[in-house]
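R.M. (postdoc): so does anyone remember the format we settled on? I'll just put the structure tokens first.
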């Protein structure tokens, strides 16, 4: 069993590279996709076993990131003036720095310069009423006159009937 990702990829690529099996045959047995095997094979042919190491997909840089100088200025204004994001935006516009107010708000939040608003919780103690067994039970009974095949029909649900044998003395005998 392969211990690293590179070993696992090599395990599937080496028989194809050595010519023992075809790529089409390996695809039928391999749990990975055809495109993955093709990419691994191309990386192996280009860079050898080191080309099979997984590479990071994280971006190397963010060209639209707010400059550090602007972030520091936002922090300074907040600590000095205690202003909200919109007023900080206006102050920065006066200095010639154009920035959106939501960006200012996000920077303040990242730097933990926002207040935590708490709502007052109502503290109520609920009194649990003492109940006796069967106190909250409600039973609806409907009388069905007559019998059906010597059985009395009792409704147990709105849509179903339960048949109970009627006592022998209460049945009418045919004349």
């Amino acid at each position: 069993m392969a211990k690293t990702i590179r070993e696992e990829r090599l395990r599937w690529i080496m028989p194809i590279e050595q010519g023992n099996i075809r790529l089409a045959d390996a695809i039928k047995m391999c749990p990975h996709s055809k495109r993955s095997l093709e990419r691994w094979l191309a990386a192996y042919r280009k860079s050898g076993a080191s080309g099979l190491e997984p590479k990071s997909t994280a971006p190397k840089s963010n060209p639209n990131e707010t400059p550090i100088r602007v972030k520091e200025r936002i922090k300074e204004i907040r600590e000095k003036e205690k202003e909200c994001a919109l007023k900080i935006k206006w102050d920065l516009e006066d200095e010639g720095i154009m920035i959106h107010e939501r960006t200012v708000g996000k920077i303040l939040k990242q730097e933990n310069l926002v207040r935590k608003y708490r709502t007052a919780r109502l503290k109520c103690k609920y009194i649990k009423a003492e109940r006796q067994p069967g106190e909250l039970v409600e039973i609806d009974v409907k009388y069905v006159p007559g019998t059906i095949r010597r059985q009395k029909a009792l409704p147990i649900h709105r849509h179903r009937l339960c048949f109970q044998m009627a006592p022998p003395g209460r049945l009418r005998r045919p004349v």
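R.M.: ...and that's the designed sequence above, right after the tokens. Also worth knowing: Residues 68-110 form one domain. DSSP finds six helices and two strands in the chain.
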